[in-house]
Design a protein that fits this description.
The structure holds 2 protein chains of 2 kinds.
Chain A: H1 2-22, H2 32-42, H3 45-49, E1 54-61, E2 66-72, H4 74-97, H5 104-123, H6 127-145, H7 152-183, H8 188-193, H9 196-199, H10 204-218, H11 227-230, H12 236-245, H13 249-262, H14 266-286, H15 293-314, H16 317-348, H17 364-378, H18 384-397, H19 403-425, H20 445-463, H21 466-479, H22 497-515, H23 520-528, H24 534-556, H25 561-583, H26 598-616, H27 620-640, H28 644-666, H29 677-703, H30 708-722, H31 727-735, H32 737-759, H33 764-769
Antiparallel strand pairs in A: 1-2
Chain B: H1 4-27, H2 35-53, H3 55-62, H4 69-88, H5 110-136
Helix pairs in contact in B: 1-2, 2-3, 2-5, 4-5
């Protein structure tokens, strides 16, 4: 299973080198990857439907309880199949949609990395590795959303999405750590064995709040929903993939996955019902104010996510079953609607629903897919949407209290959603074909086939719900620790109140479709209310923050090296001396000092003269040379006190420092003006204070009792365990080798920084063009 | 600073200093020395050569930009840490050693390759910084 996840990442890396092969003739080739993965996961359907759970465990950081353990149960199977299945169609669709794009290879790279991250997310049993994959989806989706990186709006919405989902990721990490420290394990399966440890803990509310933060940001719940409509700037295949089956469903997945662990408490249920309820109603109403097809779909997606959160919040068996079914329903019809939007956009170059009409004459298969998806979306009998909608009403009707309110909420939302579906799936294809669209090219096979396939699946599953009942739906319910015997997905329930509600939904939706036309006027109206939207409030906050940062930066990062140095020194002196004054008793043990030998005295004398010379000379080069003398004298002191390693290194470093200084200073003009006496006195006081502080520190450290344990350990073990007699070097390359690894990386980064600053700056001619 | 004495001397000093740096690198395991100092000495050797003969000559001698030493060294260090994970199912950066030390070089282990990586990175970093600054000064 690890291999299955890694293939996506390695394919993405491979494309860096083999990218040119997937452009042009072989652009269909990458689709084999999700197809292969789909087949791989599909072969588990049999085992899973018999109630088995497939577990693969790979040790990662066992000392922290962080392992790559992957669990394939009903819930993760459904998600894996959606990720790879819809992924396959999106890959194939892209090969036609972005056929001539010069960065098609990059696109496939981002897409397959995203797919792999998403698979890792839904398969992880360990909350820490789940967090890692969660962040990977945020990062890879950043590249996907900002794919049109020459467009400012697209870059901006990619940043917004990354910011919002990134914050959620951090909350998830915090939540995972809280969960881990309450229950003593990071494995969800182990947490599920005894959820009362967590639900009874005093930190339960904190853990749940953090998990909510993660799920609500990722799944675009109010008030974090606004990144999702912004993300519509991405190419349509991306919107299809992210917003139907993957990215935004990750939050839903997390909530469902943790329901057996955290669910069943009042805080969990009420918060989810309230947030889900607000989201679904708010964004369902929003759909009527949009004229961009993708905008309409974006808001109806948010609304659908709200419904899912709402259903998870209800938390009854019926409502969780409804959620499980609705995930599949929504993925099927929403992916279709996005794909046909792409087809329309590609053919007519517009997504403005007020202009689109009669397109069935030029793209019949797309029109068929649109109608079928709209039917499923509206919950017309014979579609899987009908079953989904039935289950939703069953969920609300069988809740303990506020049945009427909850059902009304679901009803209104469903009406608006079905209206949105009609507008997106039916309206563009009917009516009279305008003159300007007569010449629209007939879409490619890979443009019209994926939506038709998805839409037909929606109808097929609707007519024969037995196809998915045992294979997909029951295992999900059982993976939530609920009984499955009662579940029978049926196409026809007989005449029940639920049927009446369904009929009411469909009827009102149709009525709305005929009464209400999407128009610019409505859109302008809602745009005028933008000022009070969460998005705007966040932007205002960003602006304030930005102003504050630039003020801060301009004060401290003023470009004068001397100011930097003095700021750092003043800060350090103030901080350390404050601590020293507070709680240090001074004791200097004069008896422990060794006698000053003649050669030490001579070296100290040399140092003294070098300092005086450095301070008072009028030539830069002479000052640098004197500094070099200082450095060498210190090396000599190291030699006297038997630290040959340090002396050697210091010696080499000093040599190179002098060379560097000479290189930089050699071409500079002579001192033009020396700083005046006031500045010099100030600087002098500062340096004396700093030097004095360091001396006091050094003396105090000497006076402290030395902990011999550590040095003894190294002295004892360096030859036995690391085969080396030079303890200093053994520590560097063996005992603390990871530190050294990071240090040389930092060195390399510094060198790249210098190189970049000096070599890659714009030439004066280039600067004019910016 | 193109004096003929320094130029002639630097031609002989370069190989000697490089050899010395490798000597320092290898003896690091038992006696004072190691990759860091070794790398610094090697860079001083090249800087000296550049002072005497001009940067162009040194670059010609090197054939490639010293910046490439950084990724090479980082990769070597990282791989030497990774070897126990991949080959022997031990944690990252476990020291592995050959049983019999080789003549001249001494005992061979992953730590040695790690140190060679440090040696290369330090050299790459120092030379990149000094060459870049002296070119644009």
């Amino acid at each position: 299973m690890l291999t299955a996840i890694l293939t996506g990442f390695s394919f993405s890396v491979l494309l860096i080198f083999l990218g040119r092969f997937v452009k042009g003739k072989f652009s269909l080739l990458p689709s084999l990857l999700p197809l292969g993965l789909f087949i791989y996961f599909a072969q588990f359907i049999g085992e899973i439907s018999q109630g088995k759970t497939i577990v693969r465990n790979y040790e990662w950081i066992p000392s922290f309880g962080v392992n790559l353990s992957f669990t394939l149960d009903g819930l993760s199977l459904l998600f894996s199949l959606m990720i790879t299945g819809i992924g396959f169609l999106v890959f194939a669709y892209t090969s036609a949609y972005l056929k001539t794009h010069k960065f098609l290879d990059r696109f496939y790279g981002y897409l397959s990395a995203f797919m792999a991250a998403m698979l890792g997310l839904v398969l992880s049993d360990n909350v820490i590795s789940l967090f890692v994959f969660w962040e990977l989806t945020s990062i890879s989706s950043f590249f996907l959303i900002g794919f049109n990186n020459t467009n400012e709006a697209s870059r901006k919405s990619a940043l917004t999405a990354l910011g919002i989902t990134g914050i959620g990721g951090l909350l998830l990490l915090a939540g995972a750590i809280v969960l881990g420290s309450i229950s003593g394990t990071y494995s969800i399966a182990e947490m599920m064995q005894d959820p009362s440890v967590i639900t009874g803990s005093e930190y339960y509310i904190l853990a749940v709040a953090l998990i909510f933060g993660a799920a609500f940001t990722k799944s675009a719940q109010f008030p974090f929903h606004f990144w999702l409509p912004g993300a519509m700037k991405a190419p349509t295949p991306v919107s299809t993939y992210l917003h139907s089956a993957t990215m935004v469903k990750a939050g839903i997945y997390l909530l469902l996955r943790l329901t057996p662990v955290l669910g069943g408490e009042a805080f969990w249920n009420t918060s989810l019902i309230i947030v889900g309820g607000i989201t679904m109603l708010y964004s369902a109403v929003h759909t009527i104010f949009r004229t961009d097809l993708k905008g309409i779909l974006a808001y109806s997606t948010i609304s659908a996510l709200g419904i899912l959160v709402f259903l998870i919040g209800l938390g009854t068996e019926a409502s969780l079953l409804a959620a499980a079914v609705f995930i599949l329903v929504h993925a099927l019809y929403k992916a279709t609607l996005f794909l046909i939007t792409g087809a329309i956009d590609l053919g007519t170059k517009t997504r403005d629903v007020t202009q689109l009409r009669g397109l069935r004459r030029v793209m019949l298969p797309v029109a068929i897919a649109g109608v079928l998806a709209a039917l499923s979306n509206a919950g017309i009998p014979s579609s899987i949407g009908f079953i989904g909608k039935d289950l939703i009403y069953e969920g609300t009707l069988h809740f303990e209290n506020s049945v009427v309110l909850l059902t009304a909420l679901a009803l209104i939302t469903n009406v608006f959603i079905s209206y949105a579906g009609y507008v997106a799936g039916i309206k563009p294809f009917f009516g009279k074909l305008p003159e300007e669209f007569k010449e629209t090219k007939y879409p490619d096979f890979f443009i019209w086939f994926p939506p038709v396939l998805l839409a037909s699946l929606g109808i097929l599953f609707g007519l024969f719900p037995g196809l998915i009942e045992g294979a997909l739906i029951k295992p999900i319910v059982s993976s939530l620790n609920l009984p499955t015997e009662e579940i029978h997905l049926k196409f026809w329930h007989g005449f029940t109140p639920i049927l009446a509600l369904s009929a009411l939904t469909i009827g009102s939706g149709v009525a709305m479709y005929f009464l209400l036309k999407p128009s610019k006027k409505l859109e302008n109206f809602i745009n005028s209310l933008e000022v009070i939207s969460p998005k705007n409030i966040l932007e205002q906050f960003n602006n304030v923050f930005e102003r504050f940062s630039s003020l801060w930066t301009n004060t401290f990062q003023n470009g004068y090296l001397r100011n930097y140095v003095s700021t750092i020194i003043v800060f350090l002196v103030a901080l350390v001396s404050w601590v020293l004054l507070q709680n240090t008793t001074y004791k200097i043990d004069y008896a422990s000092f060794s006698k000053l030998t003649i050669y030490e005295g001579i070296v100290v004398g040399i140092m003294f003269f070098a300092i005086i010379f450095t301070v008072f000379t009028k030539s830069r080069l002479a000052a640098v040379a004197a500094m070099g003398v200082m450095g060498y004298s210190i090396c000599l002191l190291f030699v006297f006190y038997s630290a040959p390693d340090l002396a050697m290194t210091q010696f080499a470093i000093d040599t190179l420092t002098v060379i560097l200084f000479v290189l930089v200073l050699y071409r500079l003009p002579k001192y033009l003006s020396l700083s005046d006496y006031k500045n010099r006195i100030r600087d002098g006081i500062l340096s004396i204070a700093f030097g004095g502080l360091i001396s006091i520190l050094a003396l105090e450290v000497l006076a402290q009792p030395v902990n011999e344990e550590i040095s003894e350990f190294y002295a004892k073990n360096s030859y036995i365990e690391a085969h080396g007699k030079n303890v200093v070097n053994v520590i560097l390359v063996d005992f603390r080798g990871a530190d050294t690894m990071v240090e040389i990386s930092v060195l390399a980064i510094a060198a790249i920084g210098v190189f970049g600053l000096l070599k890659l700056r714009l030439k004066s001619t280039e600067r004019g063009q910016r | 600073m193109k004096t003929i004495i320094l130029r002639t001397a630097s031609n002989y000093l370069l190989p000697i200093l490089l050899l010395f740096s490798i000597f320092i690198l290898l003896r690091g395991h038992y006696l004072p020395g190691g990759g860091f100092v070794g790398g610094l000495i090697a860079s001083i050797a090249f800087v000296l050569h550049a002072f005497a003969n001009g940067l162009k000559d040194t670059k010609k001698l090197l054939k490639f930009h010293p910046g490439y030493l950084m990724p090479a060294g980082l990769a070597l260090s990282f791989l030497s840490g990774l070897l126990p994970v991949v080959g022997f199912d031990e944690p990252f950066m476990t020291g592995l050693w050959l049983h019999h030390p080789l003549p001249v070089i001494g005992s061979i282990g992953t730590a040695l390759f790690f140190d060679i990586g440090v040696y290369l990175v330090v050299q790459g970093v120092t030379l990149t910084i000094i060459f870049t600054i002296s070119e644009s000064a």
